[in-house]
Design the sequence.
């Protein structure tokens, strides 16, 4: 319990530091004696779901950590610094790190222009992961609700921000060892693994009829195409406005 509170503290203090618009030097963000990585690594090694840790390029890892301004004492900082990203369930979920040819988006770069106008500023949320069907996981920085530091799921089948009531560390545990078949019930099709395993990290499946529509409730009857993830994210946000969900 105490360890989880400390982890949450490090994440929130990192977000608070960003609010001050003062960029800390990279040596202030890398903690070699008290890293969050051993916890994450232990969970990966005991994961129930298939997990692939993508290698990180040292220079890109330092750039990403500096731009996101989160210490490696936190699990998120450790993932950004130690990995190019993490693929779960044959790439169904993509957890953002510092970027890799198989997941060519770093966490800070992906957030720039979405939750961040520029690096170092306060962010209402951070996009920390996404999935193959156009769903997005966000860490609340205050813009999604009062539960600061908790993770939400921007669901493609209802276009709402669903509170998961877990921290970033809890989110990793959810990805590694929870029943993802149950969580994604009705959103997977026959032979999805074959298709998802070949999907590039900057692409998602787009469905028609839309998953959120009445006609799109049976995913096995929908037509699916591969589109850039940026395009899908913009579409989901725009549809929220058109449907009057954003008021």
Sequence:
């Amino acid at each position: 319990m105490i360890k989880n509170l400390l982890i949450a503290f490090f994440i929130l203090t990192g977000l608070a530091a960003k609010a001050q618009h003062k960029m800390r030097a990279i040596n202030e963000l890398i903690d070699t004696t008290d890293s969050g990585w051993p916890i994450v690594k232990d969970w990966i090694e005991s994961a129930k779901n298939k997990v692939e840790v993508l290698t990180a390029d040292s220079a890109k890892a330092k750039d990403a950590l500096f731009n996101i301004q989160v210490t490696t004492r936190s699990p998120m900082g450790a993932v950004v610094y130690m990995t190019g990203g993490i693929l779960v369930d044959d790439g169904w979920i993509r957890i953002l790190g510092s970027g890799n040819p198989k997941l060519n988006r770093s966490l800070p770069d992906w957030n720039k222009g979405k939750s961040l106008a520029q690096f170092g500023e306060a962010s209402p949320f951070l996009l920390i992961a996404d999935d193959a069907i156009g769903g997005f996981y966000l860490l609340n920085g205050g813009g999604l609700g009062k539960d600061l530091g908790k993770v939400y799921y921007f669901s493609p089948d209802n276009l709402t921000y669903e509170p998961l009531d877990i921290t970033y560390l809890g989110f990793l545990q959810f990805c590694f060892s929870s029943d993802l078949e149950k969580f994604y019930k009705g959103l997977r099709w026959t032979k999805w693994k074959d298709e998802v395993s070949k999907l590039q990290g900057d692409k998602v499946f787009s469905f028609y009829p839309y998953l959120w529509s009445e006609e799109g409730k049976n995913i096995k009857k929908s037509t699916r195409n591969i589109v850039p993830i940026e395009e899908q994210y913009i579409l989901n946000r725009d549809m929220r406005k058109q449907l009057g969900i954003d008021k």
